[in-house]
Amino acid sequence: MKFYLISIIVAITLMAVASASAQNVNIGAKAGLNSYNIENNNSEFDSKIGFNFGLIGHTHLNEFFAVQPEIFYSVQGAKSGNTDVNLAYINVPVLLQFMFDNGFRIQTGPQLGFMMNAEAKNNNDTINIEENYKSIDLGLNIGASFLNSSTGFGFDARYVHGLSDISESSSFSSYSRGLEIGVFYLFNYSD
Question: Which of 20, 75, 124, 158 is the most exposed place for a label (fewest CB within 10 A)?
């Protein structure tokens, strides 16, 4: 099932990239670090450091607004005592950006996450816990970025607030919360 889901996501992304080439869309790559946590009323979790990497598209709607869809792999989760809860997602945010003339941007938009893997790791023991979590996570991104328009390099910082319950349990709800920081590069960037 996951193979088919990944295949569909890749096919949609390739079609979007192909059509974007005709519409002055800048394509780029991104990578960064995450600090995620799981909020619920049943357990106490600590933040877990992870990473993300993937592709971005960027197109100007006008002088001040742009749309930036992304697709990236993200390692999220939380810590509980000696146990690491590792949740791996393919995340697809679509950000609306307000661009200042000095390279700074503020951004917000929805994010759809597709769970690829869920494991609990305690010392050398790893347990598959996919049945404990839902396969889809809906979130909201709020953040800022800076782009050096002469080089195409930039940095990004955002908060991701999970809106959907990711737990399969009927006795409690769990929500993903995280901070992401990273760098990106837009190939052949032009305003």
Answer: 124
